[in-house]
Amino acid sequence: MRMQAAELFERKVGLPEVARQLRVSPKSVYQWHQLWREGGARALASRGPSGSRCRLSPRCLEKLAAYLEQGPAAHGWVEDQVWTAARVATLIGRKFHVSYSVSGATRLMHRLGFSPQVPARRVAERDEQAVTTWKEATWAEVRGPGRPVGATSASRTRPDSPDGRPGDGPGVGAVPPRS
After folding, report:
1. Which of 1, 39, 77, 124 could pair with 72 as two cysteines, CB 3.0-4.6 Å apart?
2. In Å, what is the CA distance from 175 to each residue of 21, 71, 113, 172?
3. Rounded to the nearest 10 degrees, how much is the dihedral formed by the CA atoms of 43, 45, 49, 55?
4. pLDDT 10s digits, 90-134
5. Report field, pTM of the whole predicted structure over 0.85
6. Model pLDDT for residues 32-85, shown as the tens digit of each residue
7. Which of 41, 4, 40 is nearest to 20 (CA)?
8. 94 sits in which H/E element
């Protein structure tokens, strides 16, 4: 897009017109124009993807993918077989001595073709049978019958309001235009 802007600048197209043609904000076009004046089309060339570079080498990324394939239990998380982003960040720190944030670990996992999973947080003493019984018996009593279907209206108008306005139509009783 910036290179298209450079071509338009060279043809002396007005900046508002450049913004309209490229469907970008005028502010962006003015910034691009200033860069173009100072350094030509080369100044508008892409500098590559933004953000920080990956702190793991390609070889380390291969190792990390292999570690993830082994599963969490192979690395000390035996309570469930779930790779959370926090666990992956910890694993990276242990194996490669590189610090990653949880969000950085998530992006890295996606890059490697994995997705972080969030384990279901449940009380260890949870009795599934008791929960099911409570939902079926007690919740039905507590909840009550609710509103009957069709008894209410989502409209703000009253159900017994007249269909039309009084008189013949819109503007009845309005002041006539001056002559």
Report:
1. 77
2. 48, 80, 71, 9
3. -60
4. 999 999 999 999 999 999 999 898 888 776 666 667 788 888 888
5. no
6. 999 999 999 999 888 776 777 889 999 999 999 999 999 999 999 988 888 999
7. 4
8. helix 85-96
Residue 41 to residue 3: CA distance in whole angstroms? 7
Backbone angles phi, psi at 149, to 5 degrees: -70, 135
Query: Among candidates 32, 43, 25, 27, which has minimal Cα distance to 8?
Result: 32
Structure tokens at 5: 């802007």
- The CA angle 147-148-154, to the nearest 5 degrees, is 75
Helix axes 2-10, 26-39, angle to 10 degrees: 70
Reference 88, options 61, 58, 109, 62; nearest CA is 109
C-beta separation of 86 from 126 below 8 A: no
In the 8-state DSSP scheme, what is residue 71?
-
